[in-house]
């Protein structure tokens, strides 16, 4: 089974809509998401994506793109809540 990482959300959605599986999302220090995908033929799909010969059901592609966006927004919301909580816990009011 192939393993592939990309910061391109459209490529990630294409891989998902072509049978790939999302195995993780990580963020670098600049808050850029990296999608880790697994599946068969990912290198062939990557080649098809770059040379313009990729074929995919547009409805499935849209659903995959929305799925990745939903996950990103959920993760961002969770991270924001953690940051707000830590600010609240470290903030002390003056008497």
Task: Tell me what the structure shows.
By secondary structure, the chain is an alpha+beta fold. It has one domain (2-90). Helices cover 55% and strands 20% of the residues. It has three helices and three strands. The chain has helices spanning 9-17, 42-51, 58-90, and strands spanning 2-6, 21-27, 33-39. A three-stranded antiparallel sheet has the order 1-3-2, covered by helices on one side. A hairpin with a 5-residue loop joins strand 2 and strand 3 (33-39). Helix 1 (9-17) packs across helix 3 (58-90). The longest helix has 33 residues, at 58-90. The radius of gyration is 18 Å and the shape is elongated. Mean pLDDT is 88; it is low at 89-95.
Physical arrangement of strands within the biggest beta sheet: 1-3-2
Low-confidence stretches: 89-95
Largest sheet: 3 strands, antiparallel
Helices and strands, in order, run as EHEEHH
Tally of separate helices? 3
Query: How many structural domains are formed by the residues?
Result: 1
Q: What spatial form do the alpha-carbon principal axes imply?
A: elongated
Straight-line distance between termini: 61 Å
| Structural Rg | 18 Å
Overall pLDDT metric: 88
Structure class? alpha+beta
What share of residues are in beta strands?
Answer: 15-25%
Oligomer description: single chain
Overall strand count: 3
Task: Spell out the blueprint of helices and strands.
Blueprint: E1 2-6, H1 9-17, E2 21-27, E3 33-39, H2 42-51, H3 58-90
Antiparallel strand pairs: 1-3, 2-3
Helix pairs in contact: 1-3
């Amino acid at each position: 089974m192939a393993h592939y990482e990309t910061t391109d959300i459209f490529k990630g959605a294409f891989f998902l809509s072509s049978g790939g599986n999302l195995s993780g999302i990580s963020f670098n220090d600049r808050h850029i998401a990296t999608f880790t995908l697994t599946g068969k033929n990912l290198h062939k799909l990557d080649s098809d994506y770059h040379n313009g010969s990729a074929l995919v059901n547009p409805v499935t592609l849209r659903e995959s793109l929305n799925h990745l966006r939903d996950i990103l927004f959920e993760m961002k919301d969770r991270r924001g809540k953690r940051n707000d909580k830590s600010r609240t816990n470290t903030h002390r009011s003056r008497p």
